Amino acid sequence: TNSLKKVIGPIIESLPSLAKQLNKPTPSIHISGADFYIDPDHLNLYEDIFVHMFRNSLDHGFMLGDESRIHLEIEYSSSKTELVYYDNGRGLNIPALRARGVERGYLKEGASEQQVAETIFMAGVSSAKVVTEISGRGVGMDAVHGCIERLHGNIEIRLMGEGTLPQHKRFEFRITLPPHVPMVDLADCECHDAA
Fold first, then answer.
1. pLDDT at 134
2. Rounded to an integer, what distance in angstroms lies between the CA atom of residue 126 and that of residue 136?
3. Predicted pLDDT at 99
4. In terms of C-beta density within 10 A (0-12 exposed, 13-18 middle, 19 or more buried), how is residue 46 classed?
């Protein structure tokens, strides 16, 4: 019996090690909503999705000294399952993404902030200033987008207001998947705490 919670559990357990490599704070992970079963053929896709999403939050969202948190909300309807993912980090670096998007030909000058935000899903786009083995190659959210398409779903980014740094914007990812049957109520469990 494989569920979303079981799939992401080992990834969450690996976050302290990854945070140490990046010299970032280890975030607490908060999951709300009901868990659901995952088709065994799809396990690797879900693993890839959340490895990249957690890594993206760690690398781009948080700074040393932050009380960092990542939230995952699972919502159900008869026609779809939605996963809402967000963190309390500094937000999306709009100027850096705009520059990279224009440089790679994905954006025209004067593109809206929403259009700039959507370049995060395009190959080779990253706001990282330094390329390392872990980040800055522009493959993270591009890979997430591809995995979700293979699950017959889609992902969108929604800007949610001002970030904690100038010209940064808070945001959430909303992943829409085919309908799943809820398994158990996770009742706002806290799966990992940096303390």
1. 45
2. 6
3. 92
4. buried
Q: Across the strands, what pairs with 86?
A: 71
The CA distance from 74 to 191, in Å, is 15
What is the C-alpha separation between 36 and 48, in angstroms, rounded?
A: 17
Helix (H, G, I), strand (E, B) or coil at 34: strand
Q: d(Cα 162, Cα 92) in Å, to the nearest integer?
A: 9
Give me the residues paired with residue 32 across strands.
73
With contact defined as beta carbons under 8 Å apart, do 167 and 94 qualify? yes
b/e sequence 55-87, b meaning 16+ C-beta within 10 Å: bbbbbbbbeeebebbbbbbbeeeeeebebbbbb
Residue type, 50: F
pLDDT block averages, 10 residues each, the chain of length 195: 90 94 92 94 95 91 86 95 95 93 91 95 68 48 94 96 91 96 61 49
CB atoms within 10 A of CB 152: 9
